[in-house]
Design goal:
By secondary structure, the protein is mainly α. It is 72% helix and 0% strand. It contains three helices and no strands. The radius of gyration is 21 Å and the shape is elongated.
Length: 126
């Protein structure tokens, strides 16, 4: 049986690329999850008169967004700035994605905090 030949056109997925994409998508995912789960739990919180679950959902979403920011920042710091001997920017895509991911995740963390303010100020069924 013939051994399959690797196609040189297919790029190999590296661990750093997966981590970059996780950090890029962590903030939007945390915000979307926060919105959906909060909307689902609001009737339950209103019926029971307790909104501890709503605060826990906000805390979990905030932690996910901040973890994405930390991951993006660590990837940004791990890849050195500079260029190759030919003058090509080495790792500029990686550094840009990592810094963008960290910034985006911090923004989404602020949005999650802003949407938590009404839960703190208003009563559950307002």
């Amino acid at each position: 049986m013939a051994k399959p030949i690797d196609d040189p056109r297919e790029p190999e997925i590296e661990r750093r690329d997966v981590l970059l994409w996780l950090s890029v998508l962590a903030g939007p995912f945390a915000w979307a999850m926060h919105e959906q789960v909060s909307y689902m739990l609001t009737p339950t919180a209103c019926d029971s008169g307790r909104h501890v679950l709503l605060h826990l959902v906000s805390l979990l979403a905030l932690l996910i967004a901040l973890a994405g920011a930390a991951l993006g920042w660590s990837r940004f710091k791990a890849f050195p700035e500079g260029s190759t001997e030919k003058g090509d920017p080495e790792g500029s895509r990686i550094r840009f994605m990592a810094l963008s991911a960290a910034t985006s995740c911090v923004f989404f963390a602020l949005v999650i905090l802003a949407t938590e303010v009404p839960n703190l100020v208003l009563r559950v069924c307002d």
